[in-house]
Amino acid sequence: MKPLETQLDEAAKWDYAVALPVKANPMNKNTVKGSQFEEPMFEFSGACSGCGETPYAKLITQLYGDRMMVANATGCSSIWGASAPSMPYCKNQKGHGPAWANSLFEDNAEFGLGMYLGVKQMRDRLAMDIASVMNLDISEQLAKCSAITFECTDAEMEGLSISPELAAAFREWLANKEVGEGTRERADKIIALLEAEKGNEVVLNEIYKNKDFLVKRSQWIFGGDGWAYDIGYGGLDHVLATGEDVNVFVFDTEVYSNTGGQSSKATPTAAIAKFAASGKKTKKKDLGMMAMSYGYVYVAQISMGADKNQTLKAIAEAEAYPGPSLIIAYAPCINHGIKAGMGMTQNEMKKAVDCGYWAMYRFNPTLKEEGKNPFTLDSKEPTASFREYLMGEVRYASLAAQFPDAAEALFEKTEKDAMERLEKYKKLASGDC
Ligand SMILES: Cc1ncc(C[n+]2csc(CCOP(=O)(O)OP(=O)(O)O)c2C)c(N)n1
Ligand code: SF4
Question: Which of 56, 90, 282, 311 has the fewest Cβ atoms within 10 Å of its own Cβ atom?
Answer without folding.
Answer: 282
